[in-house]
Amino acid sequence: MRSASSVRKVLIYRLGGLSDMAVALPCFHLVARAFPQAERVLLTGPPARGEGAPAAGILARSGLVHGYLEYTLGTHTNSGLLRLAWRIRRFSPDVLVYLMPLRPSNQVSRDSHLFRLAGVGRIVGLAGNEAPKHNYDAAAGRYESEASRLARSLLVLGDAAIDDPANWELGLTVEEKGAAAIGLGPLMRRRLIACAPGTRMQSRDWGRDRWRTLLTRLHSRYPEHGLAFVGDAEDEEECNYIGWNWTGPRVNLCGKLTPRESAAALEYAKVFLGADSAFMHLAASVGVPCVIAFSARSLPGIGYPYGRDHLVLYHRTSCYGCNLETCVTEARRCMTAIPIAEMEAAVARVLDR
Length: 353
Prior knowledge:
Blueprint: E1 9-13, H1 18-23, H2 25-34, E2 39-44, H3 56-59, E3 67-70, H4 78-91, E4 95-98, H5 105-117, E5 122-124, E6 136-137, E7 142-143, H6 146-153, H7 174-184, E8 192-196, H8 208-221, E9 226-229, H9 236-242, E10 250-252, H10 259-266, E11 269-275, H11 278-285, E12 290-294, E13 311-314, H12 333-336, H13 340-351
Parallel strand pairs: 1-2, 1-4, 2-3, 4-5, 8-9, 8-11, 9-10, 11-12, 12-13
Antiparallel strand pairs: 6-7
Helix pairs in contact: 7-10, 8-9, 8-13, 10-11
């Protein structure tokens, strides 16, 4: 096995959008520590539906990767796989770091064959050598987070130390922090509530009228606080509706800041409110306590924001773990079962600490 100092090029395989990159931040930091002198390139594709901006939205300017090798999802034809193998061979990585979500064994086998065909001699993290599933904590009633599972898959490289805030750092630049300060304006000097209710996935949507009622109650309860919305440009109109009754200082930054600039803005918040989204993970990465109306489409724990200070409201309905993007039959029962009063009480627990 080659020593870390002799590794010149590392290819990191991780697909998805902002959320997928955010939960893998400790692993990106670990790879950077393990191969500090190597050129680190991310093999990735366009984000899955509803997952926001591409990987660069999180990793650009972080120093954790130096470039990207992108390919089109669904490259399953022989000619398509051969072209991808040729591109990987042309980059000629000494090590490939496998940071993929859990996949069926036939897909893992296909990935392994592809990388061997591309001439990759050493693969780290490929399912099979470590437990390829999320461990279940019966006492807590939840599964381990994706961040924890990914860290276990890379133990051969060392400890990703996911409890250390330093390993969630985005390496925000002075320019990014300056853009956030300009966006927030006078709200920088107030106790700030941040909110990102937007989601591209119907099954994760708590409902605009619930969000509006919640913020109306919170404004009455905490009139001295400011309100900042973050999100994509598509969320701007909905956030205007949701924040209509907030007569105090507020700003709608949806689409006005990049994801990394949004993270810089979130650093000023005392609490973050939202759905399961990339902005939830951004808030967690900068150490902001999150109060989340979380869909039961996924198993409890796996996609939660990482950290001990978050309050995730997850109602374990009989249909939990369905993985549906659109819920018609059950009419988003797991989301509508979360009362406004329960969310209000959770926010109060954070702000009144």
